[in-house]
Write a structure and sequence with these properties.
There is one protein chain. The protein contains 35 helices and six strands. It has 687 residues and is mainly alpha-helical. A six-stranded mixed sheet has the order 2-1-3-4-5-6. Helix 6 (108-120) packs parallel to helix 10 and helix 18 packs parallel to helix 20.
Length: 687
């Protein structure tokens, strides 16, 4: 059992913001740029722009760059110096510098800047970029490079910038054009984005064999490439021989070990770092969270505060909120929300999405709606998160209403949106609506259905009893079905007791994933439901002989900022005696109103450890609910998170407890939320 306390931390300073609302034609300095006749005059305007912060406006800076590089009194050295001062040059600025160098005595610099642009600029090259590059290739008499640029112009899609960078570098090599360290950094970045380890290694060997002078930036680029391509061994060798290391070097190495799940080495590197900035802490928190270790992620977050380390930034908070979502740690998640407000941090789309997701997965749909309604900006991910929140709470009609409001707001839905919409239809039994959305995806919205959409549609059809239609949909899929698709059909067969189709689905699933314990569990449940006990025993024996074990059931509950976990029959909790005493009391009250345990959930191979009849009351979610009853105020809802699907008996018991003890219970299982109140569940027993 893990106990995680809520920290008290000092608030970080709010970072200064750049005024992006400056409107250029009304600024008195900008017309002066066009009136300059000498470089000295231009430098005076530059100085005034720095004083007034006008220089930090992208458009204004691009005007200055254009004058410095293309006017009759231009100076490319000065233009490049000005360019290097701009934190995020826009595409117009990049194009201006590329154009200037294309007509200079050093046109190869135009191509080098283009490679740098592919790495650093958020926008891909446009129709104004390539004429200057073609001119540079012409000046260099580099016909192969010129043909390469021409091919890019012809392409209808110019969105694959990393691929462009690699192809262009290969053309430069073919023309015997010597790349400098800036070019190599850009190429290594492209290799990292493409996960092209083989070519990345070739570039690193090029550095050694061609006598390119290594520096810290170049070594860090090589290190980053090795890590992102999954070769920690290469990264270790390079890191060991680097004469100089900075915080980027250490953090990259830390990230490499964390990506591989080698947390012992990651911790060793973290402890050896001369200084630990927030990026290093973020690597640990996010890697734990993304690898299914939310308790460890929160422990690192608490450690960060306890050690009075660097102040949390947006990445820290987003990762920590994701860990809270996994554990159902609403107290800590709510504390982070208050922290964001007190700090005066802008609630951007990333934070808004994370807060909505956290509140929804912790069972507080009202707070999720509150965050959504307070957001100034709502992108497709914010809308999709709210639709998902409504879907998991069984409010399918409301989810569809939000989808309509999203379209009214001129926000275009994406693949994630449709996954959430189809889930909403599945949980609420909206079969016809699900069919309509699925059929409209590509035809109306231009979103090609993927595996997740097909799995959702199979679930919609199968859950509603349309098993043959679901099977037919799988047969007609234009892409190969994955285990999730066959698993959706198998789960539906379990609910409706279709043995023949269940065996077919299970066979396909195990062909794709032979050690999928869930397939055995579901098929065994079908056999048990239809009285085929010999088949149940045969499956269990096959699992034992194959060394396949079920995932153990685990339920967690947060009380006063601490997360408590329970396994089936758990007796390790300090309050175990009180918990089991409460369970005996619950059993007595249930019996007094005529409750009879559903023994089929012992005979079936339910996603919980095998138990004897009397042990039904010991399922992990019942232990967590009992702990909630003795540890929280009667006015507080009980919020439980389970890693597997809740069994039918536990579902029935939770409904009765909510009525007998007059308590609201929120139980989140692997698939959805169950909100128990006054003897009823929000799922209406459709789950």
């Amino acid at each position: 059992m893990a106990t995680l306390g809520t920290p008290v931390i000092s608030l970080p300073r709010h970072p200064p913001t750049v005024n992006n609302d400056l409107r250029f034609p009304t600024q008195p300095l900008l017309p002066l740029i066009d009136q300059c006749t000498t470089l000295s005059h231009l430098k005076q305007v530059h100085a005034q722009m720095l004083k007034t912060s006008l220089f930090f406006d992208p458009y204004s800076a691009s005007k200055l760059i254009t004058a410095a590089s293309l006017s009759p009194f231009s100076s490319l050295d000065y233009a490049h110096q000005v360019f290097d001062e701009i934190s995020e040059p826009n595409l117009f600025t990049w194009n201006a510098l590329i154009r200037a160098y294309a007509s200079s005595p050093d046109p190869v610099e135009s191509i080098r800047i283009f490679l740098q642009m592919l790495d650093e600029c958020n926008e891909c090259p446009n129709k104004f970029t390539f004429p200057f590059l073609l001119k540079a290739a012409s000046e260099l008499r580099a016909s192969k490079i010129g043909r390469g640029f021409h091919g890019l112009v012809v392409k209808a899609e110019l969105g694959s910038c990393p691929e462009v960078a690699l192809e262009l570098f290969k053309e430069m090599e073919a023309e015997n054009m010597k790349p400098n360290d800036v070019t190599l950094v850009s190429v290594l970045s492209a290799c990292a984005k493409m996960a092209d380890l083989e070519f990345g290694r070739w570039v690193c060997s090029h550095v050694e064999t061609h006598g390119v002078e290594e520096n810290l930036t170049l070594n860090n680029a090589m290190l980053d490439m090795y890590v992102k391509c999954g070769s920690v061994e290469d990264a270790e060798r390079l890191f060991g021989r680097m004469p100089e290391k900075d915080v980027v070097s250490w953090t990259t190495m830390l990230d490499g070990y964390a990506r591989m799940g080698n947390y012992d080495e990651a911790r060793r590197v973290f402890g050896a770092m001369p200084s630990q900035d927030i990026a290093a802490w973020n690597v640990l928190i996010s890697s734990y969270e993304q690898n299914g270790k939310p308790k460890e992620a929160l422990a690192v977050f608490h450690e960060l505060q306890k050690n009075k380390g660097p102040k949390p930034d947006e990445v820290t908070l987003v990762s920590t909120l994701a860990a809270c979502s996994q554990l159902g740690a609403i107290d800590l998640g709510g504390w982070i929300h208050v922290y964001v407000k007190k700090q005066g941090m802008k609630l951007n789309c990333h934070l808004t999405t994370s807060l909505i997701d956290m509140y929804a997965k912790c069972g507080n749909l009202e707070k999720a709606l509150e965050v959504f309604n307070s957001a100034e900006t709502r992108d497709v991910f914010v809308w999709s998160a709210m639709i998902a929140a409504l879907a998991m709470h069984g409010q399918g009609r409301d989810a569809l209403h939000f989808f309509s409001k999203m379209l009214e707001a001129k926000v275009k839905p994406n693949a994630v949106t449709f996954t959430n919409i189809l889930c909403a239809c599945s949980h609420a039994g909206l079969v016809n609506e699900g069919r309509t959305f699925f059929n409209q995806m590509e035809r109306v919205y231009g979103v090609v259905p993927g595996i997740k959409h097909y799995a959702c549609m199979v679930d919609i059809l199968g859950r509603s009893g349309n098993l043959e239609e679901a099977a037919e949909l799988i047969e007609k899929m234009p892409i190969s079905p994955t285990p999730s698709v066959w698993g959706a059909l198998l789960g539906a067969c379990t609910r409706h007791g279709n043995v023949a189709l269940a065996e077919k689905a299970c066979s396909h699933l195990l062909d794709l994933d032979p050690r999928n314990h869930g397939a055995y569990v579901l098929l065994s449940n079908v056999y048990a439901k239809t009285g085929k006990w010999e088949a149940v025993s045969g499956l269990r024996k096959l699992m034992r002989d194959s060394g396949i074990k079920k995932e153990p059931g685990c339920s967690s509950i947060e009380i006063d900022g601490s997360v408590h976990e329970f396994l089936v029959g758990d007796n390790t909790h300090p309050l175990s005696k009180d918990i089991y005493s409460k369970l005996d009391e619950i059993a007595g009250r249930l019996k007094s109103i005529g409750y009879v345990p559903n023994k089929s959930h012992l005979l079936q191979f339910v996603e919980e450890e095998d138990m004897k009849e009397h042990a039904l009351i010991l399922h992990s979610e019942k232990l967590a609910i009992a702990f909630g009853l003795i540890s929280s105020k009667p006015s507080q809802p009980i919020r439980v998170v389970k890693n597997l699907r809740v069994c039918g008996d536990c579902h029935s018991v939770a409904k009765l407890i909510s009525k007998l003890y007059n308590r609201e219970i929120f139980l989140r299982d692997r698939y959805r939320f169950h909100h128990f109140r006054e003897g009823h569940c929000s799922c209406n027993d459709y789950w």
